[in-house]
Write a structure and sequence with these properties.
The radius of gyration is 32 Å and the shape is elongated. The two termini are about 40 Å apart. It is an alpha+beta fold. The strands form two sheets. Strands 3-8-4-5-6-7 form a six-stranded antiparallel β-sheet. The protein is built from five helices and eight strands; from the N terminus they run αββαββααββββα. It folds into two domains: about 45 residues; about 90 residues, Roll (SH3 type barrels).
């Protein structure tokens, strides 16, 4: 009866009576291996390396170059004047500077943040901001310090993940022990 349910070529019994798959019968008792799981920590670390960390620093409004990533903090007059174009209670406008004149900034808007802390993503629509509506201009700059902290934290997390999951073999292979374990030669 047992032979009909479990073909002998695929299963074999050990001294304890349990059945285990043989090497010719497919994957071992742990199931199929997923080698792509080893890539997950590397992808996470790579995303930290390539995204980096940026910060906004005060910028000299007289020295702004087209193409710069900027954040414009609006004053009360600007919030009221830009209400129809940007929405109510706008705190900041983030985007790429495309033009600057003596009286206004031409910006391709990427994000608008509101006074209540919410924000909305924009698709690069061009908006002209009058300089008199802008309280402060901040420039997006790469932050080496923040990036190093992020990479260090990510590497530590990945190292802990690998260490706790035994993703790196210890060189012992898949050895099985035989029951009985006493001294050899019939002693």
């Amino acid at each position: 009866m047992g032979a009909a349910l479990f073909p002998v070529s695929r299963l074999s019994g050990d001294a304890s009576g349990s059945l285990a798959r043989t090497s010719a019968g497919g994957p071992g008792p742990r199931g199929r291996r997923r080698p792509w799981l080893r890539l997950v920590p590397l992808v996470a670390l790579g995303s930290l390396l390539f995204s980096g960390c940026y910060t906004y620093v005060p910028s000299d409004a007289a020295r702004l170059d087209p193409g710069s990533q900027l954040e414009f903090e609006l004053n009360d007059q600007g919030r009221v004047a830009m209400d129809e174009r940007l929405g109510p209670e706008v705190a900041t406008v983030d985007g790429t500077l495309v033009a600057v004149t003596d009286s206004q900034y031409g910006v391709r808007v990427a994000r608008v943040r509101y006074l209540d802390g919410t924000s909305s993503a924009w698709g690069g629509e061009k908006v002209d901001l009058q300089q008199q509506y802008v309280k402060r201009v901040l420039e997006r700059k790469f932050s080496k310090g923040r990036t190093l902290v992020a990479i260090g934290s990510g590497a530590a997390a990945i190292g802990a993940f690998i260490a706790t999951r035994s993703l790196i073999g210890n060189g012992t292979g898949n050895q099985t022990t035989k029951p009985g374990g006493g001294p050899g030669n019939g002693q």
